[in-house]
Specification:
The protein has 303 residues and is an alpha+beta fold. It has 6 helices and 15 strands.
């Protein structure tokens, strides 16, 4: 079975205790199933921009992003097309700014409804939506999903890539920050970076981060919460075999604590992209040569 990946952005819009949901259109892969409004990212698009665009297409409302709520992942199997689709789903809190509520089948939904959690529990829900609403997650009917979207059946271009990664602002009880140095031969070589990296097919973002933390620094961490969502678009990156590649990376950053820190040691499982790892005090962070996402998370300019 062929493995494919997609990144989606979704919004939680509240009216009192009610949340706006959209029902899957009869022509889509999940007819009659309700979910948070949203959809797939375009190449090079920031997730926060994607949720505004997709929310408008599905609901007619112009919304603004007020915060990031969650990052989850799931795998959908399209048996007839022999495709296993992994979707990394970024969920934002949003507020309505303008527009008139109306369903838009072209956006993937044929009905909209404001529902309470109790009412949502009685509806057929996409699992990620049930989880976000705090209601029991039930399996989808066995006949779903139906046919895979056409874009999944077209091979992705060789000169374009999109990657989902999870990183950590990792601290210990003394307030030190853990950073990893990028090895020679990799983009950003010699700069200090946040622990973490690309997630595997079928892997939850937080799980992937904790795996990377062990591989890159030999530390056992505990995820406290989601800090931010970021992205990086490099239209002239150097891809596999030295070929130019239009590269888009979407990164989630978690706050992580290591309760019993040890000396940071890179293991063989890191795959060679990490040269070393080390703990730094707040004062030592100033002036370090850091990647953009590391500088963003630590609040330091670096150099």
């Amino acid at each position: 079975m062929e493995q494919r990946r997609r990144i989606g952005a979704y919004g939680v819009l509240r009216r009192g205790e009610r949340v706006l949901l959209a029902r899957g259109a009869a022509t889509g892969p999940f007819p009659g199933v309700w979910q948070l409004p949203g959809g797939g990212l375009a190449h090079a698009e920031h997730p926060a921009h994607a949720v505004v665009r997709e929310f408008g297409a599905e609901t007619g409302l112009t919304v603004g992003v007020t915060g990031v709520r969650a990052a989850v992942a799931d795998v959908v199997t399209f048996r007839d097309d022999d495709v296993a689709l992994h979707v990394d789903r970024l969920v934002f809190d949003v507020e309505a700014r303008s527009g008139q509520l109306r369903p838009a089948p072209a956006g993937g939904g044929d009905e909209l409804a404001w529902v309470t959690p109790a009412e949502a529990a009685g509806l057929p829900l996409m699992p990620f939506t049930a989880e976000l609403l705090g209601v029991p997650v039930t399996p989808l009917p066995p006949e779903l999903p139906r046919a895979a979207p056409a874009e999944l059946l077209t091979p992705p271009p060789l000169d374009r890539g999109q990657r989902f990664a999870a990183y950590g602002l990792v601290t210990d009880p003394a307030g030190r920050v853990l950073l990893t140095m990028i090895a020679e031969g990799y983009p950003g070589a010699g700069r200090w970076h946040l622990p973490g990296g690309g997630t595997d097919h079928g892997e939850q973002p937080a799980t992937g981060l904790l795996r990377e933390l062990v591989e890159e620094a030999g530390q056992l961490g505990r995820v406290l919460g989601l800090v931010t969502v970021d992205h990086l678009h490099n239209p002239a990156a150097l891809g596999p075999e030295g070929r130019p590649m239009d590269w888009h990376s979407v990164r989630v950053v978690y706050r992580v604590v290591v309760d019993a820190p040890t000396e940071a040691v890179v293991t063989e499982l890191a795959g060679g992209s990490t040269a070393r790892a080390a703990w730094f005090t707040a004062a030592q962070l100033d002036g370090l040569s850091m990647t953009g996402v590391a500088a963003l998370a630590t609040g330091r300019r670096g150099r």
